[in-house]
TrEMBL record:
The protein's name in its UniProt record: NrdH-redoxin
Record-linked Pfam families: Glutaredoxin
Domain Glutaredoxin, first and last residues per copy: 2-55
Organism, scientific name: Herbiconiux gentiana
Amino acid sequence: MVTVYGRSGCVQCDATIRTLEIKRVEHRYVEIDEVPAAAGFIRSLGHLQLPVVMAGLMQWSGFRPDLIVEMARRGWCLAGLHPVSYRVCKFSFSRAFEPVYLA
């Protein structure tokens, strides 16, 4: 399963979640402000920008629709453990994409 670490008000986090839902990639969202250890964990991996996406052995930060599309094209999560779920969501870009950095 794909895990997305993000923060409320983060435009790139919202865009990542919406793209995962449109492409029907199963995921879970971790709000780093609500899980104190999450920010330290993703910093320890070297990430300084949100969102941080972890998919099996692959991880990245920022909005990367190209990688999300690739996961959907394969029809499996990058972890290769189970197929994606089939959920549909409407998607729109209403705000400009600006990076959100960890404090």
